[in-house]
Amino acid sequence: MATLIWNALAAALAATITVGVPTWACAADAPVAVQIVDALNKRFGVHPGFRANHAKGIVAEGSFKASPEAASLSRSPLFTGARLPVTVRFSDSGGLPDLPDASPLANPHGMAIKFHLPGGESDIVANAFKFFPVATPGDFLALQLAAAASPPGSPMSPHLMAFLAGHPSVAKANATLGTPASFAEEQYFGVDAFVFVTKAGKKQSFRYIIAPEKVVHLSKEEAAKKSPDYLMKDLPARLAKGPVTFHLKAQLAAAGDPTRDPTRAWPDDRPVVDLGVLTIDRVAADSAAAEKKLLFLPGRLTDGIEPSDDPLIAARDAAYAVSFGRRTAGP
Ligand code: HEM
User: According to DSSP H, which parts of the chain are helical?
Assistant: First the structure.
């Protein structure tokens, strides 16, 4: 959990698997995390200093206070009921730092949360997909390469058509998205399954949901009228009037629900527990400088929360470390 250990591990991982200058070669013998970041760079271009994915974002600060129910599910220090400081980064999808916020490419928007605990940090990295388009790191890589062969505005390449035909979960996941009126009026999902552990050692698989006070999605016509940075401007304007709140929730799996396949949503009748309230008070003093230094990792967990058998969790940790290594490497 300790921040220093995690960041040292991420830096070491990035140092061992980053291949110097970003390359579009996507060498098949490079580690998958490197191939993934190369593929994202091929699709969106290389933008020094920016994330390979979710490049455009805004950093805010606030606190989290857990509900009593949360402590009954997990012995995590997140759930003692003490008010914990948090850093949150909202983002547009894709690797383009100047993407218009209402572009369909900006969906799914992201919400990453860093909890600051006395002994270190813990992260949740969520987005607006109710479930993920692909189930494995290999399929994520193949999808980025297929999408890179079909830039927006050009006819869909046979490569991408074949991928979509073979992976109906991509269209199904995309159909769960809308363009939000505000980062504060979007619902975000952890997508990957994790496992709560109680003091007595009892385990329960779950997926995070981060629920706003209300979800507001724009029509195509409304979205077309929005200025390129409307989401980035809305958040500070909203926070100037008062805090924005979300409920952190967990959907609990029943026996037999798939935990290793994030393309498969669990049935709606599974219990959803309110884990506590996230209150966002202010935008970071220098959001652009803050986001460069921040590294959110889905596998940066506390005692009392474990990864499931979902293969995306470790793959994401590795790919985020490669992207972080490159974006902080300097000119
Ligand atoms: C194999 C699957 C995935 C891969 C390879 C991948 C890759 C990446 C990479 C390389 C970054 C840039 C990280 C950085 O520079 O710090 C990123 C950022 C991000 N990803 Fe993913 N991603 C995957 C799945 C997901 C899923 C399932 C979600 C949400 C449920 C998600 C949400 C995000 C968000 C919100 C960010 C921005 C984090 C921030 O604000 O720092 N990604 N992703």
Answer: 3-17, 32-44, 68-73, 137-148, 158-166, 169-174, 220-224, 230-241, 287-293, 312-327
pLDDT tens digits, one per residue of 127-180 = 999 999 999 999 999 999 999 998 878 888 999 999 999 999 999 999 999 999
CA of 54 to the centre of ligand 1 (A): 7
CB of 14 within 6 A of ligand 1: the answer is: no
Phi, psi of 90 (to 5 degrees): -95, 145
Q: What CATH number is associated with residue 198?
A: 2.40.180.10
Active site residues: 54
In short, whether 170's Cβ falls inside 6 Å of ligand 1 is no
Q: Per the structure block, which two tokens stand in for 159?
A: 């490569």
Estimate to the nearest angstrom the gap between the alpha carbon of 226 and the chain centroid: 24
Six-digit token string for 331: 């000119």
Under 8 Å between Cβ of 179 and 103: no
Q: How many domains does the chain have?
A: 1
**Domain containing residue 318:** 3-327
Taking only the tens place, the pLDDT of each residue in 287-316 is 999 999 999 999 999 999 999 999 999 999
Q: How far apart are CA 126 and CA 48, in angstroms?
A: 24
Pocket test for ligand 1, best of 41, 53, 177, 313 (most atoms within 8 A of CB): 53
Q: How many helices (H) and strands (E) does the chain have?
A: 10, 12
